[in-house]
Amino acid sequence: MNRFNVALLPIDVIFQFLFVELASFFESSAEGYLLGENALAHVTLCQFRTANSEVARSVFNSWTSKRNIDLRMGQFHFRKGREAHAGMVWAEILVEKDPVLLSLQKDCFTHLARFGFEIFTGVETYSPHVTLALLRADSASIEPSIANLPYQTAIPFRPTVGYSTENGVFIKEI
Q1: Nearest CA to 33 among 122, 130, 147, 118?
Q2: ∠ CA 136-137-139, rounded to 5°
Q3: Could you say which of 80, 121, 161, 163 would form a disulfide bridge with 46 (CB–CB 3.0 to 4.6 Å)?
Q4: Cα angle at 56 between 54 and 60, to 5 degrees?
Q5: Ramachandran category for residue 142: left, alpha or beta (phi over 0 → left; psi -120 to 50 → alpha)
Q6: Are 53 and 174 in contact (CB under 8 A)?
Q7: Residue 49: what pLDDT?
């Protein structure tokens, strides 16, 4: 079974570059996740497993409630890793928990659940963010800064589906 991600990508590609620039601050200490050439900046709605990309694409296309959404970016944040990522720290930009976003995520979860998929992003524990990197805990002490990152600014995002690694790296759209 392959891992896929229904996610929101910034409509304006300039934001991909800005998030990647911010992630590059962690290049020397990243372990298994770093935004860049093989990882797209995204806000996950639901990660799930299914047999192949044709099934994932078909189910995504049948989701009638998907829509573009403006997301307000929050502040930079370090989050402790759990389970397989114990001893690690996630570097991320928080996303405001807007009721429209929460409703969209719940609807995505419900849609995928109808097909009996193994879903890794629950409704109760949903925490919207843009992951920048996975770091060794001893290297997570300094917050990066970038003048052009739109903290507290609404950015338009679009829904899509793509391949995901076990660490949640959104590799490419399908």
Answers
A1: 130
A2: 70
A3: 121
A4: 115
A5: beta
A6: yes
A7: 97
